[in-house]
Amino acid sequence: MEKYKCNICGKKHPVFRAMKSPMPAMIRNMSDKERDERVFEHDGLFIVDRKHMLLNGCIQIFHEEDASQSFFDWQAWVSVDAREFAGKRPHFEMNEEVRIKGKLNSEVIFYEKVVGLDVEMLFSPKQVIPTIHIL
Most C-beta atoms within 10 A of its C-beta, which of 27, 57, 65, 83? Predict the structure, then answer.
């Protein structure tokens, strides 16, 4: 569905299909000096304290009547172990599908207590952005 008919004005409006999460509080709440000392950023990936990687992914919501494509996407941040991610390098180089477990690090509007939920990220050569699956 690309447009819906509004019950108030009777016109058709575009469907809002995605929402982007802000930088996680883990980084947002740091002072500039602390961020310079603790965070390394490279090409949209963040490494914090050389232990955690913050990666951007997509939580997809599907409509029960059409599961062929997502109806709504939340772009969100996930924290994964930096060493575990680095260990997946050969799979990335071979352009293989990669799965890695982590913790949701974004607030998601309309849902409470989601920061810290166990997730799995799926990196697929067919997708531009990894998919986040809530475990």
Answer: 57
